[in-house]
Write a structure and sequence with these properties.
mainly beta, Methylamine Dehydrogenase, Chain H, 1 helix, YncE family protein, WD40/YVTN_repeat-like_dom_sf, Haem_d1_sf, N2O_reductase_N
Length: 312
């Protein structure tokens, strides 16, 4: 197993998992148009085949499916607890419900919802090309494999898994407890691990073997190559980067800066990250979605219960 842990010392690890900053009041008008949605939207993802947005909201806990053009609600699905991060694949939304220890799969075509009990505090979930779903259980230190709605097995490994992403027959896992990125096979065997700053939280795939990680506590964006796992670049952005959306068609990572209410875009140029865009956002921009090509972006304003649409 490839193991590179330079700079991953105990001086910061005792701090635990990083969280988004508590955003200040906005000082600039948001770049996009804002629409009221519901209490504390946090978790958003876009499906290009149906032109729908999926958004998790609180009070009561629900998953909303929206028309991405009008933001009208097409479907509202009750949840048994809080969800903060969403992914889409195989025609369905993957909803890890943290406080209910559930993976909820919501078909985008209006079909029946499938609920699977997993382990403690599932934070993120991803789908492999063969339809298998992998769930990172943050408080169990494990990854669960769900197949056809059934829990197949759970394997200990990461100390505290945050973001998880399937690529080919492997997984990239951001460990918010050990401040590392790991690569696992689809049999859940870890084959590589690398340090990832002072407090990483999430990552996004941006194409061509590239994976961008937000070091939320350190205020950096880290660019990794995945085969083999290696760090290629590090860019300081400050302001607690947290919400992320990857556009593989343009090789761009869109990242919210929760400490300054901004959204920035960084494109991969060779093995470097180059900033291309910066926009003012609504308050507390915890999560982000992007349409392929990057012409439409959506940001959740978690503090004020709104969604911002930025048309480029």
């Amino acid at each position: 197993m490839l193991l590179v842990l330079t700079g991953c010392g105990s001086s910061t690890q005792h701090l635990g998992a990083a969280e988004p900053a508590r955003a200040p009041a906005t000082t600039a008008a948001p770049a996009g148009t804002s629409t009221s949605l519901g209490s504390a939207p946090q978790g958003i993802v876009y499906d290009p085949s149906t032109h729908q947005l999926a958004v998790a909201v609180h009070d009561p806990y629900r998953l909303l499916l929206l028309d991405s053009r009008t933001l009208a609600v097409r479907r509202s699905v009750p949840l048994d607890g809080k969800a903060r991060h969403l992914q889409i694949g195989g025609g369905r939304v993957l909803v890890p419900v943290e406080t209910a220890n559930q993976l909820v799969q919501v078909p985008l075509d209006g079909g029946p919802v499938v609920t699977t009990r997993v382990q403690r505090h599932p934070h993120d979930a991803t789908i492999a090309p063969n339809g298998d779903v992998f769930v990172g259980n943050e408080f169990s230190g494990s990854i669960s494999l769900v197949r056809d709605g059934r829990l197949v097995r759970s394997v200990k490994g990461p100390q505290q898994p945050g973001g998880v992403h399937a690529f080919g027959d492997q997984l990239a896992v951001v460990d918010v407890g050990s401040f590392t990125v790991s690569v696992y096979t689809d049999s859940l065997r870890r084959v590589a691990r690398h340090s990832a700053g002072a407090g990483p939280t999430h990552g996004v795939l941006v194409g061509d073997d590239h994976f961008v990680v937000a070091d939320t506590r350190g205020g950096d964006l880290l660019l990794f190559g995945l085969n083999p796992l290696r760090r290629l670049d590090r860019v300081h952005v400050g302001h607690s980067p947290y919400g992320m959306a990857g556009d593989e068609s343009t090789g761009t990572a869109w990242v919210s800066l929760t400490g300054s209410n901004r959204l920035v875009g960084y494109r991969v140029d060779g093995d470097r990250l180059v900033r291309t865009s910066s926009y003012a956002t609504v308050r507390q921009p915890d999560t982000v979605a992007v349409a392929p090509g990057g012409h439409d972006l959506w940001v959740t304003g978690t503090a004020d219960g709104v969604i911002e649409h930025i048309a480029r």
